[in-house]
């Protein structure tokens, strides 16, 4: 999973494209990842470390891309860690509460991925640049 994100992040030129790729990876590993985040605190230390590595990989690539967009004025000047955590928690909320949002056999990412992405982008985009 981490290597997939690393490869995808290298080719992403915008936060939108990076997050689309992030959603693709999560969709591919949705069952595993959902279980991982729901049982994280009960996992052995080695598994917790693996989870931390996955999150660090995503955070590293996210910060690289989003900092460029902040510098260009495309994204609001907010702390990068907050921008990352908001994205992650939005996605995690849907994954952890799948029973509220989709049929048990349906992918939450498939059903809501584009809506999660567009909502998040609308929250973080610098409106002045959007309308110029």
Quick recap of the structure?
The protein is an all-alpha fold. It contains eight helices and no strands.
Overview of the molecule:
The chain has eight helices and no strands. With 132 residues, it is mostly helical. The longest helix has 27 residues, at 45-71.
Report the mean per-residue pLDDT as an integer.
88
> Helix coverage percent of residues?
over 70%
Query: How can the largest sheet be summarized?
Result: none
Structural class: mainly alpha
Compute the gyration radius: what is it?
15 Å
Question: What are the SSEs and their pairings?
Answer:
Layout: H1 2-10, H2 15-28, H3 30-38, H4 45-71, H5 80-96, H6 98-101, H7 108-124, H8 127-131
Helix pairs in contact: 1-2, 1-4, 2-4, 2-7, 5-7
What attributes characterize this protein structure?
single chain; 132 residues; mainly alpha; 8 helices; 77% helix; 0% strand
């Amino acid at each position: 999973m981490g290597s997939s994100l690393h490869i995808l992040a290298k080719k992403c030129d915008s936060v939108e494209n990076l997050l689309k790729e992030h959603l693709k990876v999560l969709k591919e590993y949705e069952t595993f990842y959902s279980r991982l985040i729901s049982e994280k605190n009960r996992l052995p230390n080695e598994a917790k470390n693996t989870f931390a590595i996955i999150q660090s990989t995503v955070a590293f690539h996210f910060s690289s891309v989003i900092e460029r967009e902040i510098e260009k004025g495309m994204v609001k000047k907010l702390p990068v860690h907050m921008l990352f955590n908001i994205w992650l928690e939005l996605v995690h909320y849907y994954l952890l509460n799948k029973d509220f949002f989709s049929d048990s056999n349906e992918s939450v990412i498939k059903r809501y991925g584009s809506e999660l992405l567009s909502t998040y982008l609308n929250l973080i985009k610098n409106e002045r640049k959007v309308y110029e």
